[in-house]
Amino acid sequence: MKNEQFEYTISSEDEVIKECQKILFEKFKIHSNILFKKIKNGLSSKKIDVLFYLNNDAPLNSGEFKILYSNAEKKKITIYAKGIYSLFGGIGYVLKHIHFKNNDIDIELENIVRIKPKSIFRGCLCANHPFRNNYCEWDVFDWQDYIKDMALWGNNIIWTDGMEIFPGVIPYNKPPEYLNLKIHNEWKRQSSIQGVLPNIARKFGLEFGIWYPPNGIYEMQVDNLLKKGIKIFANDFEHRKYVCPSNKRAREIILYERECMFSRFSRIDHFFVPSADNGGCVCSSCQPWVKTYLELCEEQYKILQKYHPGAKLWVSNQKLGENQTRILCEELKKSKYDWIYGIVFGPHGWNLKYLYEKLHKRYKILLYSDITHTSRSQYQMLNSSYPLNIIVGREALIGVRPHEFNRIFLSTIKYSDGISPYSEGIYDDFNKFLWSSFVQDEEKTCEEIIMDYATMYFGYNVRKKFLELVLLLEKNWITDIKDNIFKINEALLLIEEIYYDIKGSFKFNNWRLEIFRMECMMFKLVWLWLVKGRKNKKFQIFFNKTLKVREYIYSLCKLKMVPDWSFKWMNTEDYNHEKCIKAKDNLIIQGV
Fold this sequence. Notes:
Layout: H1 13-32, E1 37-39, E2 42-44, E3 48-55, E4 64-71, E5 75-82, H2 86-95, E6 98-101, E7 104-107, E8 112-115, E9 121-126, H3 140-152, E10 157-160, E11 169-170, E12 177-178, H4 181-203, E13 207-211, H5 219-227, H6 248-264, E14 270-272, H7 289-307, E15 312-316, H8 321-332, E16 340-345, H9 352-359, E17 364-367, H10 386-392, H11 402-412, E18 418-419, E19 422-423, H12 429-440, H13 446-457, H14 463-476, H15 485-501, H16 504-507, H17 511-531, H18 537-557, H19 564-572, H20 577-584
Parallel strand pairs: 3-5, 9-10, 9-18, 9-19, 10-13, 13-14, 14-15, 15-16, 16-17
Antiparallel strand pairs: 1-2, 2-3, 4-5, 4-8, 6-7, 11-12
Helix pairs in contact: 1-2, 3-4, 6-7, 11-12, 12-13, 13-14, 14-15, 15-17, 17-18
């Protein structure tokens, strides 16, 4: 794949203005048939003028902007951005408040709007695990479109997992080794894309970060050594790719593979090395793990600086528990750890408030909140409709819960310098939008944010009906599915009404709307399976209808929403209440 056109970075005010002109030009043309003329600092048309003013003295993406709106003889919007990349957030804010009509627009803006995010970091970690979610199937243009949306939400950082431990290949051996040519070609395709993502991110004002386990190496490397009778891991066989750093051969491979990885990225601004989840070693030589972990991080940091001078390294306390977290905090008080930039708090982390009190004077703290899983996770849905959660899996649906997420955000953001929530696919796109909006403007209500999402992606005229749908789904997730058929049907009716009311320009290729449709349909499908049974004609008809929507979503955005095994289960087995009750206990885990 040729990605040469992305091998550049925007560094000038003119380039940012041109990109923002392009975004607005396309939106107004598609949704209202208004044609702009480009002028020096903005756009002009018969209906409206949009002007941009940039303050280059501010941080590049502080996220701060002011909007002036006047509606005299001609509508006029003026955006003053502090930092050139903050203009993207200002453009996005405007798009959340425009009612596109045929050859006309209405604008729902105050005369003066000021947005000044309190948090330094505003972004997301998009885990592109190989062969597991739609991120890994994207091409470079899919990534560009989504990163652009993140910029319009006010984000200033994106992370990926750097193609963590790709199976069936050792790409850095000479010559490369692989199980088959198909796997090798897929690694090369994804590697090509990942290598230029930093420049695409910078184009829209986002810094770029990599997540990678401290002691992870390519699994095929481990297996090849095992065939020779050489074992370099202490963990169970399933997690053998997380090798023992106290083993000399294993440590050499870890550091060699990191150097190879760092060398293939055009730019790395941040490097996050989790203490566990994934990673870690259970052998006695590596205990206490926290000290081995810090030594390994320092060795990788030195290699990182060789290829990306100034890149910042982050550590975490995931699965360290109370005792090792206390050791971590005592260690990090020492000046020899000045090379560490910050602490990430995420799943399996112990006591955010304690970390903040002990370390915040010296280190940044970043929230790595799990917004992608509905069960067996950091913020599992304790009162969720468990038959649905069991049957579809924990990373299949949106898991609509804006008010719960807002409560979690407000209770944790005060102990941090920003957010980069964890995502495993765009089925959680709505959740990412919520958290991006929370951190951009902490005063905004959930209801306002929900309607902003509708305005931006479905059109202003359906915003209230979409709000009604979201609030209904939020209740459906915490209501026993078997006794909730009236509300389940109500949600299905609402999504159809929204689709009917949406302007044609918003209907085209609208995967976001189809994801909400799929969420509504899965409630009904599971209810039919539970109550009517798999042999029931209504179940069979709805089953096939749901599969068609799933296929349509994949055709739009490469998202396989709801796993194959879920449909196979419902299509081949009758509902077993005893089995489901037993499985319910596995939905909730402690210590996350």
